[in-house]
């Protein structure tokens, strides 16, 4: 089956909406595609998160979180026989001023190939379409360097990221 | 006019919804009321933000941001003759795991009275009702101490708040 046929056969599940003007584009080689479609298969996402060792979370909560995310960007490897989710990130936002990026993940088999940068650049591009100017995230120590490299800044003018956790 | 009459006379503009089970409660004395009603008067909010010297933002963008906020908490001073917005904060969230608090403001005439703490405690309480466990914010240097005092932590396990701004 041709790629476009493959992708569009579930048209109902993945329609272009006002947030997702461009919802899929081919990136580089290896049949990799970047998508801003908001319909993400939960089991596929679970497998991707498993691949990087994240603690499992209740599917119902994940479903609700995805529904309430402002933006999602996915990377798929698509062959005639298979469509595999290999990268993902999502964003909460007020759609106007502020956005926060969460759950950035690239499958280990595809890391160190610039896909993380592509994913993040697409997020910034989509948010800028909405004139959102404060794009934030919380970076684990091991990925701070990566985010710095793509233009994110730590503690600008002494602004500190702070957390409240239940005890 | 009695307070409840005053507040309920525009019932259409301030109804309880699934997020705002408790949408108003009296706090302390001085006719102060805490509300989680999502209908906020833009001009009132503008005046409050002016009072702390914030740069004005386009009303249309503010309206959209409020509509896309997951939670808003306001403090009003309500007399028989007047209802005045004197405190405000709002939250973006996926409604499930993560939330970020923005635009925390208390009118200078009412600062140093514990209202900021009341406002923040209410936000945490509301978010915990949804079992949201990662509650975040970005604090300017002069308010870091305040947020620490009410239980927020800077850079837990080396996690860094990072920003991307348009150049």
UniProtKB/TrEMBL annotation, chains A, B:
One of its GO terms (molecular function) is N-acetyltransferase activity. This is N-acetyltransferase domain-containing protein. SUPFAM superfamilies: Acyl-CoA N-acyltransferases (Nat). InterPro entries: Acyl_CoA_acyltransferase (IPR016181), GNAT_dom (IPR000182), NSI-like (IPR045039). PROSITE patterns: GNAT. The keyword Transferase applies. It comes from Leptosiphonia brodiei. It comes from the Eukaryota. One of its GO terms (cellular component) is cytoplasm. Keywords: Acyltransferase, Chloroplast, Plastid, Transferase. Residues 35-167 form the N-acetyltransferase domain.
């Amino acid at each position: 089956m041709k790629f476009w046929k493959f992708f569009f056969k579930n048209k109902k599940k993945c329609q272009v909406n006002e947030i997702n003007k461009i919802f899929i584009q081919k990136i580089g080689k290896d049949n990799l595609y970047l998508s801003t479609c908001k319909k993400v298969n939960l089991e596929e996402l679970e497998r991707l998160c498993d691949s990087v060792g994240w603690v499992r979370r209740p599917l119902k909560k994940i479903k609700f979180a995805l529904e309430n995310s402002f933006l999602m960007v996915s990377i798929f490897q698509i062959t005639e026989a298979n469509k595999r989710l290999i990268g993902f990130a999502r964003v909460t936002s007020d759609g106007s001023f502020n956005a926060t990026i969460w759950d950035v993940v690239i499958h280990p088999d595809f890391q160190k190939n610039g896909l993380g940068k592509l994913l993040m650049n697409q997020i910034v591009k989509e948010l800028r379409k909405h004139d959102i100017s404060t794009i934030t995230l919380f970076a684990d120590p091991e990925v701070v360097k990566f985010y710095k490299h793509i233009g994110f800044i730590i503690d600008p003018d002494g602004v500190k990221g702070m957390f409240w956790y239940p005890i």
